[in-house]
């Protein structure tokens, strides 16, 4: 991704708010045909159509073949197990795609895989299908009862709503927004930190959940203040990707802080935090002192955008 010689980091990129170009889990291509979710006749016809394809999922994993390239194994409806059924969308040829939770079909040459293993390797359509299905499986599996009255809810809208039979309340899939921000200082150094549960060589940028009553920009500023004690300015949004591990939406930002203030890591959230120039980060990665985030994450894309290309030894799966 860079023509810079191997012994030096690439030239600094301009600090525009250019969006992130590639996000592993934000590549879905299907038309979600949301208006068809309540059309029972259309849904029945689609399920009866042998061209229809079904992604079977169990505990976040689906069958994947790896030759000639990683691809989901989709089955026709008559080979799908009984189970909750979710309309995932329609492809460019008009073929409907459903997700079903249940025992995985055994397919020669395939093995079960989840988003962490293949989310960055699958093609655009398959990556989107698996991301959508993983999110719905988790939501249905953890939100079976009405939060108002406790009654068992039933699935509606082809898997995108649950309805309470007692009080009629509707419940929609839960997505938790989380901000993740690459903070730079006046010298364009990047702030990297280590979370309390992380391996000794793992570093990433700061992140946190958005709180009720808070804008995304406010969440960025609050999290940086809480985690390392710094004020930030110039908060800019660069892109987002679903992160259904289990139920987040990651919203990527850059932010700047002025020099002169010390880092004051919150020991509850940050084991250590430090500023890195491109040269220092490259040297630390080269020396094996730091393992940067893998390509599945929006963190890796934000770091690469700042760095100006891929870091050495970034895991390529
Ligand atoms: Zn209820």
TrEMBL record:
InterPro entries: NAD-cap_RNA_hydrolase_NudC, NudC-like_C, NUDIX_hydrolase-like_dom_sf, NUDIX_hydrolase_CS, NUDIX_hydrolase_dom, Znr_NADH_PPase. Residues 173-304 form the Nudix hydrolase domain. CDD domains: NUDIX_NADH_pyrophosphatase_Nudt13. Its EC number is 3.6.1.22. GO terms for cellular component: cytosol. Pfam families: NUDIX (PF00293), Zn_ribbon_NUD (PF09297). The keyword Metal-binding applies. PROSITE patterns: NUDIX, NUDIX_BOX. Its cofactor is Zn(2+); Mg(2+). It catalyses: a 5'-end NAD(+)-phospho-ribonucleoside in mRNA + H2O = a 5'-end phospho-adenosine-phospho-ribonucleoside in mRNA + beta-nicotinamide D-ribonucleotide + 2 H(+). It is an enzyme of class 3 (hydrolase). One of its GO terms (molecular function) is NADH pyrophosphatase activity. Keywords: Hydrolase, Magnesium, Metal-binding, NAD. The keyword Transmembrane helix does not apply. GO terms for biological process: NAD+ catabolic process; NADP+ catabolic process. Belongs to the Nudix hydrolase family. NudC subfamily. This is NAD(+) diphosphatase. It comes from Actinomadura mexicana. The lineage of its organism: Bacteria, Bacillati, Actinomycetota, Actinomycetes, Streptosporangiales.
């Amino acid at each position: 991704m860079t023509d810079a010689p191997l012994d030096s980091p690439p030239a600094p990129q301009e600090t525009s708010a250019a969006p992130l170009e590639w996000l592993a889990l934000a590549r879905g291509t299907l038309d979600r045909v949301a208006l068809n979710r309540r059309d029972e006749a259309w849904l029945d016809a689609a399920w009866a159509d042998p061209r229809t394809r079904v992604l079977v999922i169990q505990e976040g994993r689906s069958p994947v073949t790896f030759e000639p390239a990683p691809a989901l194994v989709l089955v026709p409806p008559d080979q799908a197990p009984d189970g909750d059924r979710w309309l995932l969308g329609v492809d460019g040829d008009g073929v409907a795609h459903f997700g079903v939770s249940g025992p995985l079909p055994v397919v020669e040459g395939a093995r079960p895989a989840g988003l962490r293993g293949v989310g960055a390797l699958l093609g655009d359509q398959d990556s989107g299908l698996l991301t959508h299905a993983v999110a719905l499986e988790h939501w249905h599996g953890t939100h079976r009862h009405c939060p108002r009255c406790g009654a068992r809810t039933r699935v509606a809208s082809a898997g995108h709503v649950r309805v309470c039979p007692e009080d009629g309340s509707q419940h929609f899939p839960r997505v938790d927004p989380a901000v993740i921000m690459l903070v730079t200082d006046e010298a364009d150094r990047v702030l990297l930190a280590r979370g309390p549960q992380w391996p000794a060589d793992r570093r990433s940028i700061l992140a946190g959940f958005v709180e009720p009553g808070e804008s995304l920009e406010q969440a960025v500023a609050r999290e940086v203040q809480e985690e390392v004690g710094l004020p930030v300015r110039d908060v800019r949004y660069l892109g987002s990707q679903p992160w259904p591990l289990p139920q987040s939406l990651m919203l990527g930002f850059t932010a700047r802080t002025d020099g002169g203030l010390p880092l004051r890591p919150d020991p509850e959230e940050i084991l250590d935090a430090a500023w890195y120039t491109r040269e220092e980060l490259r040297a630390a990665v080269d020396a094996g002192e730091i393992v940067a985030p893998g390509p599945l994450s929006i963190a890796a894309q934000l770091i690469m955008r700042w760095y100006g290309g891929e870091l050495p030894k970034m895991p390529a799966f």
